[in-house]
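Long-time lurker, first post.

We've been arguing in lab meeting about whether zinc ion would sit comfortably in this protein at all. Half the group thinks yes, half thinks no, and nobody has a model to point at. So I'm putting the question to the forum: if I give you the sequence and the SMILES, can you give me back a predicted structure of the complex? Inputs are below. Any interpretation is welcome too.
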Amino acid sequence: MTALCVRQAVCVAVSVAAAVVALTGCVTPTDVSDDRFIRFFDELAFGSGVDSDHANRLVRWEGSLRFQVRGDASFRTQAVQIMAELGRMADLADAPEQTNDAAVILHQEPAGVSFPINRDRVDCYIHYKRRGPVIVGADIHIAAREPQRVELCLYHEVFHLFGLGHSGAIASVMSPFHGVSAPTRWDFMAARFILSDKVNSGMLRQRVLDTLGRKLPSLRAMPG
Ligand SMILES: [Zn+2]
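Top reply:
Settle the argument with this. Predicted structure of the protein with zinc ion, as tokens:
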């Protein structure tokens, strides 16, 4: 059934059949129920197994987002544009700022380089640094060259920086199955929530999910 989820357009076509939706995880954005979004966020924040501490306590980025970019002119331009858009869509209190001493570094790697992740090789990855439940810095490596792929890589890896892992529950740049070409509004809702003052780093999973349930109406009301 996964093949049906390769393109979002296909998912829209099959989503009329509730049984198929349940099996494939394909839904149109307007179809996503509160329960489904909470499951999506639960998988993103606690279920990815990036490390064992993620299983029960919230691990996330905090504060303003300062970053460096190391690469050629077109990579630097694209990275700065995407960080600005990300700051706007994730509703960061301060716009992401490019500074020379930032602890988040976006590295453009030589074309064709790949990185081993589990048993795959990928063209972008993140290595982040933590202090307890707070992510305090990261090196993000991008070997992709095609601009659309670079964009997807940057969004995906910065969502990891925020503390979000992977989920196939909803069309998302954090899903390996949906094949989306850009972040969805569900990605930005998840980013807004994990970065919000409604939750704290180290907060227990159930409390985070209960808070999410209460805050979903206001999250849904935000633009994007
Ligand atoms: Zn990932």
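For your lab meeting: The chain has seven helices and eight strands. The pocket of zinc ion is lined by residues 156, 160, 166 (CB under 6 Å). Whichever side wins, do check it experimentally.
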